[in-house]
Design brief:
About 35% of the residues lie in helices and about 20% in strands. By secondary structure, it is of the alpha+beta class. It folds into two domains: about 20-95, OB fold (Dihydrolipoamide Acetyltransferase, E2P) (Beta Barrel), CATH 2.40.50.140; about 95-265, Recombination protein O, C-terminal domain (de novo design (two linked rop proteins)). α3 (about 125-140) packs antiparallel against α4 (about 145-160) and α4 (about 145-160) runs parallel beside α7. The longest helix is centred in the middle third of the chain and has 19 residues, at about 145-160. The radius of gyration is 20 Å and the shape is elongated.
Length: about 280
């Protein structure tokens, strides 16, 4: 449990408040005492609203930030983009993630994709639960598990929850099960091609067999996959990110991913790879 901040400044009359849990995707200061919060809520899905007076009424320096899980009274009014948030209370603030550049960068990559892919207010409790499990896993696992293994599975499982799961167990063209060989990820076709069917066979779209099995849930973080060099990890991360951006029609580049890549290139990646454990969350 984190430190708590509350406000009793609700919205106008005629709005029925709903108490809901929510993940804070973005938080912006608004004037002197308020904050504008972009949330993914359990009750309404993605919403953003203004928490009036929350900065002035905070009982401690722990203010609502990106990555927190909060509980709030949401006054969601139809046909309005900015809603009113009252009685904001921090439930979890994930101190280990806040203290780690790598963990917070992976979280931000996940949030940036979510913000770009989900643009309407629509309840999706399964997706909310998935995001919470991802945050819990980032908090509890070491950096060398969070990046790249958790991030790679996040891409695949988030895509699956949004209805665009990549086909990884068999060739998307001929249907032959891929065994003991690399595949080639074809984003427009929605999955991997085998060596026989792939016209490109370009190295930048190749998916090593051990990575493909891991993403399918058929392989663990074994010794071979743990020795994948940093440039190859960056390439695979970019490949999975590009797959999602193609299917969600996201035209902009990921600033959070660029920051994460900068950390890796500057030697911030953990050098201890032998402690990687299971990821702990399920789709």
């Amino acid at each position: 449990m984190g430190c708590r901040a509350t406000t009793n400044l609700y919205g106008g009359s005629g709005m029925s408040p709903v108490k809901t849990k929510a993940v804070v995707l973005q938080a912006f200061r608004y004037r002197e005492s308020s904050s504008i919060l972009h949330l993914f809520s359990e009750s309404h899905g993605r919403i953003h609203g203004i928490a009036k007076g929350i900065r002035a009424q905070a009982r401690s320096p722990q203010l609502v930030e990106r990555g927190h899980i909060i509980e709030t009274l949401a006054y969601v009014k139809p046909h309005r983009e900015l809603h009113t948030l009252g009685a904001v209370q921090i439930l979890e603030f994930f101190p280990s993630t806040r203290m780690s550049l790598v963990k917070s960068a992976v979280r931000d990559v996940a949030f940036e994709l979510l913000l770009a892919a989900v643009t309407v207010t629509d309840p999706h409790p399964e997706l909310f639960d998935f995001i919470v499990r991802v945050l819990d896993t980032i908090e509890g696992k070491p950096e060398e598990t969070v990046y790249p293994w958790l991030l790679w599975r996040y891409y695949v499982r988030f895509a699956a929850m949004m209805g665009i799961a990549p086909k990884l167990d068999a060739c998307i063209c001929c249907g032959r099960r891929i065994e003991g060989e690399q595949g080639f990820l074809n984003a427009p076709k929605g999955g991997v091609e085998c060596g026989r069917c792939s016209k490109s066979k370009a190295g930048q779209i190749s998916v090593p067999n051990e990575v493909r099995l891991f993403l399918c849930g058929e392989g663990k973080i074994g010794e071979k996959i743990k020795t994948i060099p940093a440039p190859e990890r960056i390439r695979m991360t970019r490949l999975l990110d590009s797959f999602c951006r193609y299917h969600f029609d996201i035209r902009s580049e990921s600033k959070s991913l660029e920051f994460l890549e900068g950390l890796m290139k500057n030697g911030r990646e953990s050098t201890t790879t032998g402690k990687a454990r299971g990821l702990g969350f399920r789709p």
